[in-house]
Amino acid sequence: MDLLPIGQFARLSRLSVKQLRHYAELGLLRPAHIDDDSGYRYYHPSQARQALSIGLLRSLDVPLAVIGQVLSGTEGALGRVRDDLEAELQRRQRTLAALERVMSEGLPAAQVVEVEEPSRLVAVTGEQAAGDLDIARATSACVARLLAAAGTAVREPQLIGLFPVELTEPCTVEVALVTGEPIAGTRPRVLPGGRFAQATHVGPYDQVTLTAHALLAWCAERGQAAGGPIREVYVSDPARTPPDQLVTHLQIPLED
């Protein structure tokens, strides 16, 4: 069968000429022939299936780099894309839930009080988060390590999350376990006491940012720089408390 010029092949494969040129540069779909004199590009009709496959995968938000792996037969390539899409869907669902809360209750305006906190001996472990979407995973990993290290030595564990004020990408989050004595496999640290601005969040952990917003706004209105780290004192046991009833105290250290 005769070769097809790029314009005709583009119509056949439902791609644009620009897309075909781009895919050729990436090595995804090279022309069957390029005229040495004119530079015109020609494709074989049998390449239409591959071109249509590229278009299909792009419509499914598959990155071009992964499309190359799929076309070369790499196993598991699409599984990673599915996992990424599922994570994005969960993030969108959390965002929607937070937006609905703002719509029903208005902009966050949690009551803020000033509290005095004593210094505490704690066991600390940290985890790097790739970004804000990875903070929940990193925090859960820290909690799991602390509880595993503590075992039965701590009957009613008091956990405190420690988060940077500016969530850069990547960032390191830490969780402290109040112990009173060192625990093997963790870093002992004295968590400083002092004066803190505190707001109480009631609801799922993934909506804590709403209360954090109100707390930061309170500090800003009073000319208080938001020192760090921001503490999340976990009052409720998530294993026995419904998500909408979880109680968390958010604390920001205040300058004297």
Set down the secondary structure blueprint.
Elements: E1 4-5, H1 6-13, H2 17-26, E2 33-34, E3 41-43, H3 48-59, H4 64-71, H5 77-105, E4 112-117, E5 120-129, H6 135-150, E6 159-163, E7 171-178, E8 187-191, E9 194-202, H7 208-221, E10 230-234, E11 247-253
Antiparallel strand pairs: 1-3, 2-3, 4-9, 5-7, 5-8, 6-7, 6-10, 9-11, 10-11
- The beta-strand count equals 11
Calculate Rg over CA atoms. Answer: 27 Å
How is the biggest beta sheet arranged?
Answer: 8 strands, antiparallel
Give the number of domains.
2
Q: Which structural class best describes the helix and strand composition?
A: alpha+beta
The CATH level-2 architecture of the largest domain is identified as Alpha-Beta Barrel
Low-confidence stretches: none
How do the strands of the widest beta sheet line up side by side? 4-9-11-10-6-7-5-8
Q: What does the overall shape look like?
A: elongated
Number of helices: 7
Concise structural overview:
Helices cover 38% and strands 24% of the residues. By secondary structure, the chain is of the alpha+beta class.
What does this protein structure show overall?
This protein is of the alpha+beta class. It has two domains: about 5-75, Multidrug-efflux Transporter Regulator, Chain: A, Domain 2 (Orthogonal Bundle); about 110-255, Regulatory factor, effector binding domain (Multidrug-efflux Transporter 1 Regulator Bmrr, Chain A), CATH 3.20.80.10. The protein has seven helices and eleven strands. It has helices spanning about 5-15, 15-25, 50-60, 65-70, 75-105, 135-150, 210-220, and strands spanning about 5, 35, 40-45, 110-115, 120-130, 160-165, 170-180, 185-190, 195-200, 230-235, 245-255. The strands form two sheets. Strands 4-9-11-10-6-7-5-8 form an eight-stranded antiparallel β-sheet, covered by helices on one side. The protein has a three-stranded antiparallel β-sheet with strand order 1-3-2. A hairpin with a 7-residue loop joins strand 6 and strand 7. The longest helix is centred in the middle third of the chain and has 29 residues, at about 75-105.
